[in-house]
Design brief:
Shape: elongated
Low-confidence stretches: none
Helix content: over 70%
Keywords: Membrane, Transmembrane, Transmembrane helix
Order of helices and strands: HH
Structural class: mainly alpha
Largest sheet: none
Number of strands: 0
Number of domains: 1
Length: 73
């Protein structure tokens, strides 16, 4: 009987740790998504940049960084 109680307490502790870790991940994800949405909205309203232009620049970013680092054209 005491072994069952120990296993139950350990299972509850592990479940609680997993749950709190999941909550932290969800909070971070929501915060990041809202920050990205705010930046995109700001770019649209202030500079007139549409999301397609922004996406094209994000896709080209690794190549641009590589050219900068290697000194290529």
């Amino acid at each position: 009987m005491p072994l069952d109680l120990i296993i139950l307490v350990a299972a509850i502790a592990i479940a609680w740790l997993v749950f709190t870790a999941l909550i932290k991940v969800v909070k971070t994800t929501i915060t990041t998504a809202l920050t990205i949405a705010a930046i995109v909205l700001l770019l649209m309203l202030v500079f007139g940049v549409n999301p397609t232009e922004l996406w094209e620049q994000l896709i080209a970013l690794p190549q641009t960084i590589w050219r900068t680092v290697t000194g290529g054209n």
